[in-house]
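anyone seen this seq b4? input:
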Amino acid sequence: MLNLDVLSQRSQQSRRDGEIQITEETNQLRHSHNGTQKHATTLMNATQQDIATCQQEHSCETQIYQGYETSLIYLYSAANLLRSDSEIHMAQESVCQRKSVDQRMR
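predicted toks r here
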């Protein structure tokens, strides 16, 4: 009978050891899972921040491009005005030269 008592005690001790080991492993898995979740959250936040930064940079680049485009339009308009002024001035000189020639001929 002594052997049965010893076997029973050993069996109970083994079961308690197994329960303790399962509990410890479960706690380790929970801790690991929490760490993984925190890491994933950190990466997600960093990614969202990177996306926001890229969008902001793209917006700035778009504004710069639009500024260049507007500047080119102004330069083109100014060049057209100068050309028109030049053409008008040349036409006026031509008229003045004709008047001068006409006056000389009279």
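The CA atoms of residues 68 and 93 lie 37 Å apart. The radius of gyration is 45 Å. kinda curious what u guys think
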